[in-house]
Each structure stands twice: as C-alpha cells, then as structure tokens.
C-alpha cells in the first residue's frame, strides 16, 4: 500500500473515487453538488498540499482532503476508502499523512462532518478520537411552513387546594392576598371536601406566579397546600407547599417549554415520599400515576391526568378553572 500526497494530475482518479462515494452515501437534500463544484474546493486543498491518496497494486483505493487551517483548526472535508481496502488501516494512514506537520503550523484541533445515518463512518471517526460537538439539523420547507403556522394554544387554568376545614380562615387569607394581585380579579372558595378547601381565581388561571404566591400564603397560615395547573391544555403542573415553603414541584413533560439539564428535568418529577406524607397518597400510586415523559403523547390526556393525580391526594375538582368552578355545587364567590 502506498500513501502519498495528491497532485492535480490525479483529478481523473479522484473524480472516480468521489463519484463512487456519492453513489454509496448520497448527500442529504440540499447538500448535493456536482464534481465540478466539488473540485473547485478540492483542487485548492491539493495545491496547498492537504490532500492524500492511497494506492495498492490494483490502483487508487482512497483519499483524504483537509482544508487549509483557519486559526488553530483544520477541517477534514472529504474521506473515502473503497470497500476492498477497508479495515486494513488505510484511513488511518491517509489521515496521518495529511495531518503530519499541522502541529508545527499552530493547529491544535481537527474537525470533520459525518452523516448521522452513516453508522460505520461515525464509528470509524470515533475510534480516532473524534467526538460530536454540534448537530446540523434538516427539514423540508413545506413541513417547516406548516409547523410555523400560528397555533391557538388551549387556555391554561389553575386552582389552589388547602388542607383545612376552616373556610373562614381560608377566606380571610385570600382577602388579604387579593389586593396584591396586579389586576382586578374574581375568586371562588368552595366548601371543604375530604379535608380540602379549593380556591379558584381568574387571575390564577393565567398567572403561575400569582398562583404560587397564593398557595404559599395559604400554606403559611394553614399548613399544607397544593397548587394544580393545566397549562396550554397539554401539560400538568403541581406545587406542593408545607408551612409556606414549596417542597415539591411536578411537571408532566419537564422539557415541554424547552431543553434543560438532566438534573433539572429530574427535579420536576413528583416526590412520592413527600406527597404521601403531606397528602396521604400511596407512594406506589404516586409513582405509577404522576409520571413524567418526553412528550405529552406518552401520557394520558392532560386534564384526565390532572384529575388522576389530584384524586391520589384526596382532592376533587382540581381539573377545573374559575369559569367551571362557578357552576360547582356550593361554590361561593367572594364579594
């Protein structure tokens, strides 16, 4: 096997190899080019001395091209080895040839692009120490335009449930809280059921921060409170408070609003031990029902899921917002 620097006189055989590669690994839509287009770049690499070709007794078997370094990085633009010469060390030898001397030129890193679908190619480069640092993502224009069309999100709503039978104490705390809500609002307090009093507020339906503050004040005065929310009609959230402090937060699809570190996503799973201690729910049922997922399609319909989780805690009617609560038996709007 001979490894040598390529010259412009090698264009015919380089083209033959390049066209073999294009047939074996077609370019993704929008990335294809003709040989003439490719050669306008590759010939510059050849002139600069950053191209190598491998030959055996039957002829050329592979090539590697590297673009002229920019700052401290060189980019390996093209590489191909014919099937008959694969797994014989040809790729390693070609790369060794073109990268020799780069360090003396101040180059500290070498990069390359590889198709996600090319598992063998990715494995080969990984064995040489290359690691993924970014992804190029692709979609077709028609699909993109469809997804960019405005979508009317379903309305969000929320409620707060406090572990108490003292309706007067609940009303007193709510009345003290309402003047601090940014806009005029209406509030409904329902009679205690299963040891829980529910509070619905039309501002709370829209404002998670207001809901959080109301739940915190009710918990500070009365012990345990749970704030439930159905957000955009698709995801369920609950906040669990004890003595005014939030001790647990659950979001059915942790990355619904965007990617987040794994540790933060895990923190949005329900804590069965806390939920059991503060609400009486069975830990095994909390684990089974209050699950998290990567998408809402992997879970029951959001309103249904909200009702199931609330039922574990002995809470009824959590799957209602202010408008629906007004029709509930015993519902009383604060004057």
Plain-language structure description:
The chain has two domains: 2-140, Gcn5-related N-acetyltransferase (GNAT) (Aminopeptidase, 3-Layer(aba) Sandwich); 157-333, no CATH class. 36% of the residues lie in helices and 21% in strands. The protein has helices at 11-24, 35-47, 90-99, 119-127, 141-148, 167-177, 202-206, 208-222, 262-267, 272-279, 283-289, 302-312, 322-325; strands at residues 2-5, 51-56, 59-66, 73-81, 109-112, 157-163, 187-189, 196-201, 224-231, 235-242, 245-251, 332-333. The chain has a seven-stranded antiparallel beta sheet, sandwiched between helices. Strands 1-2-3-4-5 form a five-stranded mixed beta sheet, sandwiched between helices. A hairpin with a 6-residue loop joins strand 7 and strand 8. The longest helix has 15 residues, at 208-222.
Shape: elongated
* End-to-end CA span: 92 Å
Mean pLDDT: 92
The total number of structural domains is 2
Any low-confidence stretches, pLDDT <50, length ≥5?
Answer: none
Short description:
Helices cover 36% and strands 21% of the residues.
List the helices and strands and how they pair.
Elements: E1 2-5, H1 11-24, H2 35-47, E2 51-56, E3 59-66, E4 73-81, H3 90-99, E5 109-112, H4 119-127, H5 141-148, E6 157-163, H6 167-177, E7 187-189, E8 196-201, H7 202-206, H8 208-222, E9 224-231, E10 235-242, E11 245-251, H9 262-267, H10 272-279, H11 283-289, H12 302-312, H13 322-325, E12 332-333
Parallel strand pairs: 4-5
Antiparallel strand pairs: 1-2, 2-3, 3-4, 6-8, 6-9, 7-8, 7-12, 9-10, 10-11
